[in-house]
Write a structure and sequence with these properties.
The protein is α/β, with parallel strands linked by helices. The protein has a single domain, classed as Spore Coat Polysaccharide Biosynthesis Protein SpsA, Chain A. Helix content is 38%, strand content 18%. The chain has eight helices and nine strands. A seven-stranded mixed sheet has the order 3-2-1-4-7-5-8, sandwiched between helices. A two-stranded parallel ribbon has the order 6-9. β1, α1 and β2 form a beta-alpha-beta unit. α5 packs parallel to α8 and α7 packs parallel to α8. It is globular, with a radius of gyration of 17 Å.
C-alpha cells in the first residue's frame, strides 16, 4: 500500500456522508470536503430525502461525488453499513464517517489522515485538550459527557468520545468487523463500531475536534435514539 505521506490530498480516501433532508447543507459541505482533500471521493448515502437532497448533490456535477438513494430501513447505522460495503467493493484504503451539517468541520479531515499513519481507527474527540463543543445548551453538554462516561465505564473502553460520529477507518478494520452482525441503528452504532474494533485488536487514536451546533436543518437526535443507545450499551457488553 502506498505510504500515507505520499498522498496528502486524500488519494485512496472515501468520505461517507449519510443524508436525510440536508438540501440546505449538502451543496456547501461537499465542496468544502473536496477543498481539504482534493483527491478524495465522497459518497452521499441518501434515505430518499423528500427535500431533494440527492438531486442537489447530483446537480454539482462533480465526478468525485457519488450519490446513492438507499432503500431499506432508515437510520444512521444502516446508512453507514451500506456505505462501508460500497467502499469495500471498490479500491479505497481510508474511509470516513462524516455528517452533512458542518458540526463535523471539513478542516479537520487532513488531521485524521495524519493520525491514521499510526492508527487503524481515528476518532474525532470533543472531550480532550483542543476539542470542544459550541452552541450547546448546558443540559445537552451534560447529557453528552455523562453518556460517554457511562459507556466507558460499562464497556471498559479508554476512549473519551465514544458517541461521536466523525471517524476515519483503515480498510482492514471494516474488512475484519462483521458488518452483518452490527445491530445498532442510532447513536449506539458509533459505540458498537469502536467496541468491535477494540475487541479485534486494532489501534485506536483520538484527535481533538471542535463541534459547533448545526446552523441549517434539524437534528436527527430523538428520545427513542437516546434510549436505544443507553439500552444497547448493556447488550454490547456481552462478547
Amino acid at each position: 500500500m502506498q505510504a500515507l505521506s505520499e498522498r496528502p490530498s486524500g488519494q485512496g480516501t472515501l468520505v461517507i456522508v449519510p443524508t436525510y433532508n440536508e438540501r440546505g447543507n449538502i451543496c456547501r459541505i461537499l465542496p468544502a470536503i473536496l477543498a481539504e482533500l482534493p483527491a478524495a471521493n465522497v459518497l452521499v448515502v441518501d434515505d430518499h430525502s423528500p427535500d431533494g437532497t440527492a438531486e442537489a448533490a447530483e446537480g454539482l456535477g462533480d465526478p468525485r461525488v457519488h450519490v446513492v438513494r438507499r432503500d431499506g430501513p432508515r437510520g444512521l447505522g444502516p446508512a453507514y453499513i451500506f456505505g462501508f460495503r460500497w467502499a469495500l467493493a471498490r479500491d479505497y484504503d481510508f474511509i470516513f464517517e462524516m455528517d452533512a451539517d458542518f458540526s463535523h468541520q471539513p478542516r479537520f479531515l487532513p488531521h485524521f489522515l495524519d493520525a491514521a499513519r499510526d492508527a487503524d481507527l481515528v476518532l474525532g474527540c470533543r472531550y480532550m485538550p483542543g476539542g470542544g463543543v459550541r452552541g450547546w445548551a448546558p443540559h445537552r453538554q451534560l447529557l453528552s459527557r455523562g453518556g460517554n462516561r457511562y459507556a466507558r465505564t460499562v464497556l471498559g473502553l479508554p476512549q473519551r468520545d465514544l458517541t461521536g460520529g466523525f471517524k476515519c477507518f483503515r480498510r482492514t478494520v471494516l474488512e475484519t468487523i462483521d458488518l452483518g452482525a452490527v445491530r445498532s441503528v442510532g447513536y449506539s452504532f458509533q459505540i458498537e463500531l469502536t467496541l468491535r474494533a477494540s475487541r479485534a485488536g486494532f489501534r485506536i487514536a483520538e484527535i481533538p475536534i471542535v463541534f459547533p451546533d448545526r446552523q441549517v436543518g434539524e437534528s436527527k437526535m430523538s428520545l427513542a435514539i437516546f434510549r436505544e443507545a443507553v439500552t444497547n450499551i448493556w447488550r454490547l457488553r456481552s462478547p
